[in-house]
Amino acid sequence: MSFPRLDLVAIPGSLRTGSLNRALARALDELCPDDTAVEVIDLHGVPLYNGDLDTDQDRPAPVQALKDRIREADGVILVTPEYNHGVPGVLKNALDWVSRPSYRSPMAHKPCGLMGAAPGGSGTMRAQQHLKVILLGMAAQVFPHPGVAVSRARDKIREGRLEDEGTREFVASYLAELASWVRRVRPD
Amino acid sequence: MSFPRLDLVAIPGSLRTGSLNRALARALDELCPDDTAVEVIDLHGVPLYNGDLDTDQDRPAPVQALKDRIREADGVILVTPEYNHGVPGVLKNALDWVSRPSYRSPMAHKPCGLMGAAPGGSGTMRAQQHLKVILLGMAAQVFPHPGVAVSRARDKIREGRLEDEGTREFVASYLAELASWVRRVRPD
Questions:
Q1: Which pLDDT score is estimated for A30?
Q2: What ipTM does this complex have?
Q3: Does the first or last residue of chain A, that is N or C, have fewer Cβ atoms within 10 Å of its Cβ?
Q4: Which residue of A has its CA nearest to B133?
């Protein structure tokens, strides 16, 4: 291929060891096109947002590292659980840090895809609706796509691996379309 | 009055020392009816949600204390900032902890009011829309009211005090209606 390699990061929104969404995020690098890589980012070190600490002197090191990694990446994939019909506080909290300063942050115009997995029937669709509004609220570019919502995820993800063949194929096709879109819309 | 005293807690969704929303929350006890008290709860000690630690053995003590206090209270007032058109991760994170176990948590059927203050024109109205969906998602009862959205809040809240007379009157009338509704709908 003549394209340079596409560098995507995936951010699962759960800290749980057996997280379905971390397992889904880990499958993305296998399922993406050959000219694309997806690195999974862990939110364990990112503390609760406190505007008093959001200065160049006091910003926690894991927050600065996350901001730098997102700025460098061509695009971001949010892999969200759904808690209480919304986005987990853990994921929103990380986005609150990386979205500063408003409209000039590493998220501004960053191409973003989103997906999620949940044990129930919603497959995180309600959380994803909120997440789209939130991402647009920080001036990110949101991939316009019906979305990947993995419902009944305990039947499809076992022992940390996305096993369901239909889901793997759908996610692979999503990633191919996402990669093509990111190449088109990412800022120079 | 023949009514027993009504016990409400207010939860500001910011950790910042000069938070407009903490200042708004602190004004509520002054502005509420005589037979009602509003205690402000601080979220500083509540860590990021991790389902692995959400067991009776491992649950962090500040989380258990928050759950116990909410269970005891007659009602809750969420006082939310708006970050990225949504609810701050800090506040959503606390709600994620206290909403477990689903539909049998201290939030289930708990009467809830909501309000917020922001420097801009929205007055947190977008965050409050998300918050209503989230609260209903944990089976809380949401006070049906057009709401308190304090816009241009830096003109109305100075040095940690809600000064604007029109806002004080509107908040006082909201609290009177809220208190009356909480008495009617709270579970026995």
A1: 98
A2: 0.93
A3: C
A4: A85
Give pLDDT, residue B1. Answer: 47
Give the CA dihedral A30, A36, A39, A40, nearest 10 degrees.
Answer: -60
Q: For residue range A90-147, list pLDDT tens digits in order.
A: 999 999 999 999 999 999 999 999 999 999 999 999 999 999 999 999 999 999 998 8
Architecture of domain A6-180: 3-Layer(aba) Sandwich (3.40)
Tokens found for residue A2: 């003549």
Chain B: give the shortest CA distance to residue A41, in Å: 16
Q: Does A90 touch chain B (CB under 8 A)?
A: yes
Task: For residue A61, give both structure tokens.
Answer: 């090191």
Q: pLDDT below 70 — which residues of chain B?
A: 1-3
Chain B residues closer than 8 Å to A92 by CB: 83, 86-89, 92-93
3-state secondary structure of B126: helix
Q: What is the pTM of this model?
A: 0.95
